[in-house]
Specification:
- The chain is of the alpha+beta class.
- It folds into 2 domains: 6-160, PurM-like, N-terminal domain (60s Ribosomal Protein L30, Chain: A, 2-Layer Sandwich); 172-347, Alpha-Beta Complex (Phosphoribosyl-aminoimidazole Synthetase, Chain A, domain 2).
- 33% of the residues lie in helices and 23% in strands.
- It contains 11 helices and 13 strands.
- It has helices at residues 21-28, 76-93, 114-130, 181-189, 195-205, 211-215, 231-243, 258-264, 271-280, 292-298, 317-326; strands spanning 41-43, 52-55, 60-69, 97-107, 135-142, 147-157, 172-175, 221-226, 245-249, 284-286, 308-312, 332-339, 345-347.
- A 7-stranded mixed β-sheet has the order 8-11-7-12-9-13-10, sandwiched between helices.
- A hairpin with a 4-residue loop joins β2 (52-55) and β3 (60-69).
- The N and C termini lie far apart (52 Å).
């Protein structure tokens, strides 16, 4: 049987499927004012955070999230791994521990055999096992394009919950994965990626952000999120605006996948890169010393299961970096939060 390349059955890929930030804001806006007030809901639609958080009343909180998308890789097993790791990341980004998951699957049965969907499920189960949980149910539909993801529940002590809008002035910004997977995924979809770069892409996409659970216990970590479809700049804009601050980042310090730079110079860019920049480009100040063309190609690049973006008290940066190294994570110092200025992000 001819190998099935899943990305050829979908117009989008991974978190690049996300609706553009400006359009999403329009969708979520409403003139309807609810009379319901849930005092146990700690984190909800009032902020742009990674998950909802519900106070269980016993000192702990329930973290609830859902994430799904169309294939970002061709291999079915790997697609399941990536989608599962990405969904779990939202719980880790809140400082929590996943406890259960249910599957969300859309599949074009008339185009792709059911056994390929079974391979997707197997890939997801393999990642959930690494996270110490099982997929306990789910829902499936016959869809025109394949998509897959998980709804995940997690737990954390209330004092360990991390939000994306609680950074403090002077906090140092850390990032735990290099950017550029959106570009690599586009190269793959166009049949231009090398075997070496395919391996780089798949390994990063499927790597768990479980370090976030440890960071939840660190008081010096003031805020946290994960970098996904809106790109590094998009999620940093959310952190900065939510915290009432400006972020100053050093372009040279941002970890980047070198292969992504090479492909980008060949004009291989996801469509979502342009959508992202159009949504928030007016909030960004690029200093003349920064290569503006390269920065445009990489900073709005949609990431799937990207790194954790962390705001850390400056006095504890070295300790957090050492903690990351001890857990096999490379935490790069890319900037700091400053007093709110005219632009939301300054790239120097």
């Amino acid at each position: 049987m001819t190998p099935i390349k899943l990305t050829q059955f979908a117009k989008g890929a991974g978190c690049g499927c996300k609706i553009a930030p400006s359009v999403l804001e329009s969708i979520l806006s409403s003139s309807r004012i609810s009379s319901l007030v849930n005092t146990n809901l700690m984190v909800g639609n009032s902020s742009n955070d990674d998950a909802a958080v519900y106070n269980l009343g016993n000192g702990s909180a329930l973290i609830v999230t859902a994430d799904f998308f169309m294939p970002i890789v061709d291999d079915a097993f790997t697609f399941g791994q990536v989608a599962a790791a990405n969904a779990l990341s939202d719980v880790y980004a809140m400082g929590g521990k996943p406890i259960t998951a249910i599957a969300i699957l859309g599949w074009p049965i008339d185009k792709i055999p059911a056994e390929v969907a079974a391979q997707v499920m197997d890939g997801a189960r393999s990642i959930c096992e690494k996270a110490g949980i099982v997929i306990s149910g789910g829902h499936t539909i016959d869809a025109p394009e394949p998509f897959f993801g998980l709804s995940v529940n997690g737990l954390a002590q209330i004092q360990h919950i991390k939000q994306n809008n609680t950074a403090q002035e002077g906090d140092v910004i850390l990032l735990t994965k290099p950017i550029g997977v959106g570009i690599l995924a586009t190269a793959q979809k166009r049949g231009l990626i090398t075997d070496e770069h395919q391996d780089i892409l798949e390994k990063q996409l499927a790597r768990l952000n479980d370090f976030g659970e440890l960071l939840g216990k660190e008081k010096a970590v003031h805020a946290m999120t994960d970098v996904t479809g809106f790109g590094l700049l998009g999620h940093l804009v959310e952190m900065s605006e939510g915290s009432g601050l400006t972020a100053e980042i050093t372009y040279a310090s941002i970890p980047k996948i070198q292969a992504a730079i090479d492909y980008a110079k060949q004009g291989i860019l996801p469509d979502a890169t342009y959508r992202n920049w159009n949504a928030y480009g007016d909030k960004i100040n690029l200093l003349p010393s920064v290569d503006a063309t390269e920065a445009f190609m990489l900073l709005p690049d949609p990431q799937t299961n990207g790194g954790l973006l962390i705001a850390v008290d400056s006095s504890a940066v070295d300790d957090i970096i050492k903690l990351a190294e001890a857990n096999g994570v490379q935490a790069s110092q890319i900037g700091l939060f400053t007093t709110k200025a005219d632009k939301t992000i300054n790239v120097i």
